[in-house]
Amino acid sequence: MQWSWPGNSKLPNNHLEYARRRDAVAAGLAARRLDALAVSFGPNLRYLTGFTGSNGMLLQLPDDAVFFTDPRYAIQSAREVSCRVWVCTGPILPELAAEARKLRVRRLGFESSRITFEASRILESALQRSATLVPVSGWLETCRMVKAPEELERIRRAVHTNSAAFEQALRHVREGTREQDFAAELEYRMRRLGAEKPAFETIVASGERSALPHAQPTAARLRAGELVVVDMGAMQDGYTSDMTRMLFVGRPGSRVKRLYNAVLKAQAAALAAVRAGVTAGHVDRCARRVLAAEKLAHLFVHSTGHGLGLEIHEPPRLGRRDRTRLAEGMVVTIEPGIYLEGFGGIRIEDTVVVTRTGCEILTPTPKPLRIV
Ligand code: ZN
Ligand code: ZN
């Protein structure tokens, strides 16, 4: 039977790509003095095996890999996962530990920042002192920073879905529309356009509440003279997108225009700073410098952006002190914002791919303040 990606039969078989990624991890075990790595975190599992289910673990060895799951995923994992699959009859951890014992694993890496304390205790006791558990944190996440061409293709599609849904939903928005109806329309449109789900809880916040960077939509109605922030993303074929755009109900006054243009300039400066070789912190400082010149830097209370991919927030973080060097193929957001209590907030966000000489802005949605 021909294997195909769930929900999209046009995509090529990616088994070779998953095998290549597992080989890279296998090759890195020795340098970390590990005999094996137990991978349990969903996005890392998907990255290494293609498994889209909710319960599985990978035991990665120097020259082999065994995937463990439960009977609910027997059929699915046989289709999705190209390495050896072990369908457990009971809980996964003891069976994985038994296999590690059998293979004489002495030092077993585990994802210490992704596993519960209880799970680590179960694993430890099931190893019966045959192996030492070694905490591993951030390794696979670092591997995931630079995207392969097929990952970029999926992100592009998620971005497209996101922007198309925004345009479609806008046609239904006017003064008096409730924030939660607008958010529901955005999410419905994303699904109709092929998204599995929103990449995160869609933000639609109007008036003073737009000053809350992570506001949730309420029953409040869009009123004349108010700013509206829309922050949305699609998850499609497992990959995410992220975009923020601003609307204004009615005609904006000079203060809104001045603040909006300042954020737009800061965003443009950060976009212009992105290229392979610069640090994430440098990009952040470029955005902050523009806002400082307008005496608005103290209102910019978060970092300039973040990586995205299988998760909506991934390294690198484009924050002041982040020294990660950007590399070709990384996908990051650029999203400076300012937040004025009692007045409102303004944020503008695009998803971009880092290139050798700059960046490619994936988000096609125009940036001038949208008038409703
Ligand atoms: Zn966002
Ligand atoms: Zn974001």
Give your account of this protein's structure.
- With 372 residues, this protein is α+β, with helices and mostly antiparallel strands.
- It folds into two domains: 2-143, Creatine Amidinohydrolase, Chain A, domain 1 (3-Layer(aba) Sandwich); 149-371, Creatine Amidinohydrolase.
- It is 34% helix and 22% strand.
- It has ten helices and 20 strands.
- It has helices at 15-28, 42-49, 74-80, 92-102, 117-126, 139-143, 149-170, 179-192, 254-273, 280-293; strands at 36-39, 56-60, 65-69, 84-87, 107-111, 132-136, 197-198, 203-206, 227-232, 234-236, 239-240, 243-248, 305-307, 314-318, 331-334, 337-340, 344-347, 350-354, 359-361, 370-371.
- Strands 4-3-2-1-5-6 form a six-stranded mixed beta sheet, with helices on both faces.
- Helix 9 packs antiparallel against helix 10 (280-293).
- The longest helix has 22 residues, at 149-170.
- The N and C termini lie far apart (51 Å).
- It binds zinc ion (2 copies).
- One zinc ion binds at residues 242, 306, 333, 335, 349.
- One zinc ion binds at residues 231, 242, 244, 349.
